[in-house]
Amino acid sequence: MAKNNGSAGRIDVKKLLGKLSPYTIKKGLLYLKHYGPKEFFIRLHERFEPEEIPYEIWYPAYVPDEKTLEKQKKTKIRPEILISIAVPAYRTPELFLREMIDSVRKQTYANWELCIANGSPDDEEMARVLSEYTSADPRIKVKNLEENLGISGNSNAALNMASGDFTGLLDHDDLLAPNALFEIAKAASACPDCDVIYTDEDKVTTDLKEHFQPHLKPDFNLDLLRSNNYICHFFLARTSLLKKTGGFREEFDGAQDYDLILRCTEQAREIVHVPEILYHWRTHKASTADNPASKMYAYEAGRRAIEEHLKRCGVEGKVEHTPDYGFYRVTYPVSGCPLVSILIPNKDEKEMLKNCIESIREKTTYPNYEILIVENNSETRDIYRYYKELSKEENIRLFRYRKGFNYSAINNFGAAHAKGEYIILLNNDTLVLTPGWIEEMLGVCQRREVGAVGVKLLYPDGKIQHAGCVVGMGGIAGNMFVDMPSERTGYLHKASLLQDMSAVTAACMMVKTEVFRKIGGFEEKLAVAFNDVDLCLRIREAGYLIVYDPYVQICHLESRTRGAEDSEEKVRRFQSEIEFFRTRWIDILKKGDPYYNKNLSLTKWNYSLRALPGMAEK
Predict the structure, then answer these.
(1) Is residue 304 situated within a structural domain?
(2) Pairing, β 175-176 against β 235-238
(3) Domain co-membership, 364 together with 258
(4) What is the enclosing helix (H) or strand (E) of 608?
(5) Which of 112, 190, 455, 478 has the smallest C-beta neighbourhood within 10 Å, fewest atoms?
């Protein structure tokens, strides 16, 4: 799970020693060879840093008790939905097979059918066990295939047996939580247009003694899905949609589920996420669940699946592997050469502004941009001398905003003078670190569904200041992975993956000019605080995505020009802006950020577990 920022650099030695075995040592040597010493030790620290709330303590308190399960059994869900569970089985050990089937039979929701395609008809032990279960429960159906058809062929055989409204995919040695189908049926009944449902998951050791590595997912996140098959387990789709898509394709074996999920989500009317841990993925020494180096062909198949998905969507993009197997980078090429307006407010800060502009000149390879500087009541001679120098530059324009400091009003004033199709909102206390930064942001922002793009911001010491923003964090909204060393990737590599977020900071944000003007720009009642979060939420409300792009890095000195909230007037203004934001966005604050997860902490910035009743957060 995510680690405490304050523990960065420390290793939980007890946890590390507990994992040592001949197998894990061998696996560690393979990772060392793949990553090299520096990257290996970064990942080792991330994996074995002390957890704020260890999952082995949290999980037993999380699972529903017997009273809750009994209540679910008596609850009638209307309309009642038949759920088919499709299982491709091949030489499944008897114990694993029984545990998988028993996990389905223990469901608190009874309207299901289990469809098992047996790809090993010559396995007498499997045949005996399956016969025993079909005799005991008519909801269990088995088809003995004449031969092993491979993972895709066996899976399609199981899908073809399904007659339910929805069909879910269950591996032959994994398990469902007893409340899985109840939660799914409830979600499906509440959303008539739902075509795809997915849940959270964790991993479990072969002997089922230890649950670990919970995957607590956001609601549907297009850019995250293009970066990694985060949906994975437990995935269900309307059976008619599965048949329409044609099921699994053997040319994507190894990532056949990724390919299917991409095709189903492309066509789904509504996609519902159930934020509950309802699927337990059993790990084996040779499985990709535990050893990503073991099946490189699977990750190449995943890369090709994303390429095919982009083609079907009519989107150009180059898909590459990242150093972390199973995680990908999509680079979107720039179409044409539209003008980009870089908008920088400034007061007095000559050296800071100069350094910012010089970093733009040094790192920018994009040919068509202008810089707009909005001067706000500067008092020093130095800055006006510098403005005079800048006024000689062809692509720099200067404007004077004469009223008092109001970040929103200043940027709205500057944006009104922007000639570009895209605006980059940029603080004067920033330094561009990434060559080609405009092309990277522009390629993403040009997509029709995208309204704005934010970047990874770093403090001068190299630690992260911003890797996306979560609404509700710290009470109102907060940046993620604050103070984490920039070489680290964080919980499930989220600090380093292109993904959709509810908000990003305007210290460096690209926005479509048309969209900015359509929604009325910044809210000027938010003079200082949360104006960028409000802007992003209104862009999302208008139907556009907000994308966090970690492939652009900016050094940010954060708020040096404005100063601290150190006067009674400033404190009062800050409180009034909090109240304004809370009133406007009370729904999302109550329901939770859709790009976060209700089981994650709103007081820690690193995807730590949220404390359950009776637990205290460190």
Answers:
(1) no
(2) unpaired
(3) no
(4) none
(5) 190
